[in-house]
Amino acid sequence: QAQLVESGGGAVQAGGSLRLSCAASGRTFSRLGMGWFRQSPGKEREFVATIRWSTGSTYYADSVKGRFTISRDIAKNTVYLQMNSLNTEDTAVYYCAASESYSNFYYYTRERQYDYWGQGTQVTVSS
Question: What does the pLDDT look like over 111-124, one tens digit per residue?
Answer without folding.
Answer: 999 999 999 999 99
